[in-house]
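re: ur question from earlier - yeah i can do the single chain one, its not a big deal. heres the input i used so u can compare w yours
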Amino acid sequence: MLRKSLFHAVFEATKGVSERLRQMTGLTVDGAELVDQCFGARSGTPLVRINAYRTDSETSEHRGFMNLLKGVFGTFRNPPAHTPRATAGWALTEPDALDLFSMLSLVHRRLDAAQVGARP
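and the output i got, formated as tokens:
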């Protein structure tokens, strides 16, 4: 029973980040495309900024956060989203799931303090 609960808890927790980004920005896309549009990967003008995004160091931190989110989606959300649980061979352990929940807590805290909208 614990494995089934972990599967769904991890899947729902990662989907929650996508939903949060959509609510913050009004975007309707998902996954890496959502992250790219939110954090300005293609346009260079982020809709969501986790810092002032003025110095090289701030830009680097911002891009690192964007890549962290893409990594979370690719590693933890996409496999269960695209493969039935019974056949997925999903091997996430309880300690790994707890670490992910801690990481997602950090992500949400950073989003709590983020600025939304084009840089002035």
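The chain has one domain: 2-116. not sure if urs matches, ping me
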